[in-house]
């Protein structure tokens, strides 16, 4: 298998999730929207687990050395995989505010990390052994590891924001 294939697949999965989810939420009939919203917690769990496995693939299989901001993004993503899985199994939607906090913080870190890659001349706290400005991958000319993380955090946030709460009506 081509070395670039996994990162292209990761990129396309996240893009399809973001655009597909937005398309359903904005343009689909109410019955499809309602059905989609009934699965959003499960989908967010799958995204978080997939992103966790993807980051482990990059570091453990491809031997990419995570920089400081990669670790911060992992600190936000790894607990999401665990708490969303537990919430999905228990059907507990009360976890959503806490998971949204982690995904929002992770997205902010990803944005900062990506801009470090775009403008590498600025100082950063990253060490020489793992530069935060180094691009281990670059898909379609702009998608790097922080972009993949950002897409995952945004997709998780979108899914969690649209997950019906027990005290709200999902018929809309």
Short description:
The chain has 172 residues and is mainly alpha-helical. The protein is built from 6 helices and no strands. The N and C termini lie far apart (45 Å).
Mean pLDDT: 90
Separate helix tally: 6
Using the CA coordinates, give the radius of gyration. Answer: 17 Å
The helix/strand series, from N terminus to C terminus, equals HHHHHH
Overall SS class:
mainly alpha
DSSP summary, beta strand count = 0
Which range best describes the helical content: under 10%, 10-25%, 25-40%, 40-55%, 55-70% or over 70%? Answer: 55-70%
State which percent range the strand residues make up. Answer: under 5%
Domains, number: 1
What does this structure look like?
The structure is a single chain. The chain has helices at 5-27, 30-37, 40-61, 68-90, 96-118, 145-162. By secondary structure, the chain is mainly alpha-helical. The N and C termini lie far apart (45 Å). Helix 3 runs antiparallel to helix 4, helix 3 (40-61) packs antiparallel against helix 6 (145-162) and helix 4 (68-90) runs antiparallel to helix 5 (96-118).
